[in-house]
Structures are given as structure tokens and as C-alpha cells.
């Protein structure tokens, strides 16, 4: 019999890749992929051109709308909870709304999943919950900075306690900064933003000295990590850091300059928060059998290549100069 996999935030950045990967993954052949999203991000294109091999259902709804959420849980085998107010990890924008959705919205999803008898629940947390320092492993104390990171940690506590107290089969993935080309793109996090700026011929603005570290994972590997947890019972009740590598901001710049040597860099001290540095250890998830496949070169070059057919060089004079491919 077909199983139903509910993906909250299925039209978001990670979700847009995950729903395609699930639809083409032989391990989930015949399963119904039920996408639950309010489309506030405007990523309508995430629902277009889905692979014919997948079985899809779509429900337009908000995770704070308990009635619609409850209906969406009908016959659901597994929930992958991606829906969130997503900002850069140290952003202080919209703290009340971020808390409402990421903390209390997660509590609502968990509650409805328990009521519906869902067998498996995977939560997309964030590696930013650790705060500055590291490299951190899953047992280290978390000191999150900013409303986003705080709310994601609170959401994780709700999820994990439901496993301990309510019998839900839960896994939390503390995802590193996700980057790379996906159908529902985002450009606020630094890797994708730098790839975009370089791709259209603009300067890369580095806050501080660029030595601050960031944990990274390609969006395809983030999708693979979710599917790994979905199919493996040894992930029950576990928390995993999902990270491919820890890279400095200068390391991102150097990777981009390998492809586009003329990319200019500008250093500034205007944003103190952007100089926060943290690293994350990936030992536990690798020991469980998961290995990343995509490199930083893969991810950044993939975005740059899509912009490189027609690259706008920096403005000089009365008209923008266009460079057409040979």
C-alpha cells in the first residue's frame, strides 16, 4: 500500500528539492508526497515541473491553522517538518512572528502528528542554535544568538520531548547553512548571495576580516540527509548535525575567485553580528552511515553557471556593458 509523507514547507528552498528527490527515489516508489505550504515565500515555481514518477498532493495551509493541518495528517505515515520563518541565523527581524511560527507552530505540528498516529517525524533544526565557537557536537550546550536560532532550539525541544513523553518516533537534523541551486531559490545566506553577486559582476562585501567560520551543506545533501533519516530506523530519537564542511568567509571568496578571478572584494566592519564565527562537527551522522556527496565548488559553480550566459559587468559610464557568450 502507498504511504503518505507529509512535508510542511514543501515549497520552500529545501522542500522544493526534497519533493523532487522523493518522487524519483526508488525507496519511496509509489508513496504519496503531500506538500503543505502557505506559499508566503512566493515560490510557486517549486510546484511546477514535478517529476512524473512521483505521486503528489498539495494543500495550501499554514502550520498555525490547526484545522487545515489536522486534515492534512489523514493517513500520514511520516512528517518532515521544514516549515519555518527562515532568516539568516543571526537576524533580529520579526522576533515575535519568528517565535510564533518556529516554536509554537512546531508544537502544533507535533501535537497533530501524535493525534494522527504518525509513525515517524523528522524536524529540520539549525546548526546556528549552538552559538559562537565550536566545533560543536550534538551533546554540547547551545547558546543561540538571535530570534531565529532561539526559536529553532525551542522547536527542537518540543520535538524531542514528544519522543520521550508521547512515544513519537522523532529525529532532529541540525542543518548547516544550506546552499546550492534548487527550484525554490533563496539568496539571503552568504554562499548563495556571494555566488549571485559574482555571477552578475558585483563586488563581494565581507564583514570583518573574513576569517569567521560557517558550517555548510549543499541543498542536495540536505535532501539526502532527510531521506537517510526517513529510511533508517537507527535514527530514532537521535539528533544529528548535518554538515559537509566548515569554511571561512574568505574560503567562500577563494572558491568563487577560482572560477571568476576578476571578482572584487570589499571588506567592511559595519555589521558586527556577521563576524560571529561557529563550527560544527559531523562525526555522528557519518558514523551512522551518511556521507555528503556535493562539494563547495559544485554548489557555488552551479549557481554561477546559471548566471553566466549573460553577465552584467560593473556599471561604468552611461550604459551598462553586457558580455555575451562567445
What does this structure look like?
With 326 residues, the chain is of the alpha/beta class. The chain has a domain at 4-179 and 216-242: NAD(P)-binding Rossmann-like Domain (Rossmann fold), CATH 3.40.50.720. The protein has helices at residues 13-24, 66-72, 95-116, 147-166, 190-199, 219-231, 249-259, 283-287, 296-307, and strands at 4-8, 32-37, 55-60, 76-81, 120-126, 133-136, 170-175, 177-179, 204-207, 213-218, 238-242, 245-248, 265-268, 278-280, 311-312, 322-323. α1 links the parallel β1 (4-8) and β2. The longest helix is centred in the first third of the chain and has 22 residues, at 95-116. It is globular and about 55 Å long. Mean pLDDT is 92; it is low at 322-326.
List keywords for this structure.
single chain, 326 residues, alpha/beta, Rossmann fold, seven-stranded parallel beta sheet, three-stranded mixed beta sheet, 16 strands, disordered C terminus
Q: What is the element layout, followed by pairings?
A:
Layout: E1 4-8, H1 13-24, E2 32-37, E3 55-60, H2 66-72, E4 76-81, H3 95-116, E5 120-126, E6 133-136, H4 147-166, E7 170-175, E8 177-179, H5 190-199, E9 204-207, E10 213-218, H6 219-231, E11 238-242, E12 245-248, H7 249-259, E13 265-268, E14 278-280, H8 283-287, H9 296-307, E15 311-312, E16 322-323
Helix pairs in contact: 1-6, 3-4, 5-7, 5-9, 7-9
CATH class of the domain at 4-179 and 216-242 reads Alpha Beta
Say how many strands there are.
16
> In which order are the strands of the major sheet placed?
3-2-1-4-5-7-11
String of helices and strands: EHEEHEHEEHEEHEEHEEHEEHHEE
| CATH level-two architecture of the domain at 4-179 and 216-242 | 3-Layer(aba) Sandwich
Helix count from the secondary structure assignment? 9
Roughly how much helix do the residues carry, as a percent range?
A: 25-40%
Q: What is the percentage of strand-forming residues?
A: 15-25%
Task: Give me the secondary-structure category.
Answer: alpha/beta
Rough outline? globular
- CATH fold name of the domain at 4-179 and 216-242, please? Rossmann fold
* CA distance, first residue to last residue: 54 Å
Q: How does the major sheet shape up? A: 7 strands, parallel
- What would you give as the CATH superfamily of the domain at 4-179 and 216-242? NAD(P)-binding Rossmann-like Domain
Amino acid at each position: 500500500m502507498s504511504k503518505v509523507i507529509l512535508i510542511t514547507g514543501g515549497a520552500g528552498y529545501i522542500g522544493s528539492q526534497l519533493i523532487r528527490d522523493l518522487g524519483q527515489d526508488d525507496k519511496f516508489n509509489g508513496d504519496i508526497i503531500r506538500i503543505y505550504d502557505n506559499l508566503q515565500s512566493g515560490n510557486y515555481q517549486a510546484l511546477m515541473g514535478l517529476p512524473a514518477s512521483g505521486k503528489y498532493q498539495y494543500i495550501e495551509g499554514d502550520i498555525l491553522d490547526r484545522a487545515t493541518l489536522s486534515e492534512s495528517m489523514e493517513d500520514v505515515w511520516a512528517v518532515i517538518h521544514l516549515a519555518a520563518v527562515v532568516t539568516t541565523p543571526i537576524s533580529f527581524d520579526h522576533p515575535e512572528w519568528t517565535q510564533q511560527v518556529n516554536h509554537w507552530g512546531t508544537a502544533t505540528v507535533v501535537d497533530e502528528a501524535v493525534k494522527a498516529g504518525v509513525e515517524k517525524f523528522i524536524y529540520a533544526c539549525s546548526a546556528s542554535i549552538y552559538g559562537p565557537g565550536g566545533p560543536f557536537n550534538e551533546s554540547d550546550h547551545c547558546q543561540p544568538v538571535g530570534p531565529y536560532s532561539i526559536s529553532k532550539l525551542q522547536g527542537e525541544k518540543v520535538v524531542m520531548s514528544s519522543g520521550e513523553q508521547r512515544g513519537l518516533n522523532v529525529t532532529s537534523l541540525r542543518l548547516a547553512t544550506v546552499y546550492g541551486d534548487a527550484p525554490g531559490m533563496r539568496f539571503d545566506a552568504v554562499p548563495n548571495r556571494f555566488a549571485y553577486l559574482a555571477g552578475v559582476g558585483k563586488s563581494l562585501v565581507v564583514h570583518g576580516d573574513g576569517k569567521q567560520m560557517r558550517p555548510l551543506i549543499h541543498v542536495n545533501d540536505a535532501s539526502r540527509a532527510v531521506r537517510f533519516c526517513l529510511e533508517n530506523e537507527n535514527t530514532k530519537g537521535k539528533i544529528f548535525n548535518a554538515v559537509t564542511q566548515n569554511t571561512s568567509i574568505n574560503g567562500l571568496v577563494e572558491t568563487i575567485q577560482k572560477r571568476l578571478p576578476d571578482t572584487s572584494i570589499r571588506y567592511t566592519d559595519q555589521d558586527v553580528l556577521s563576524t560571529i564565527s561557529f563550527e560544527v562537527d559531523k562525526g555522528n551522522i557519518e558514523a551512522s552511515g551518511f556521507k555528503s556527496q556535493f562539494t563547495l565548488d559544485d554548489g557555488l559553480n552551479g549557481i554561477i553557471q546559471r548566471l553566466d550566459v549573460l553577465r552584467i559587468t560593473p556599471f561604468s559610464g552611461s550604459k551598462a556593458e553586457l558580455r555575451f557568450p562567445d
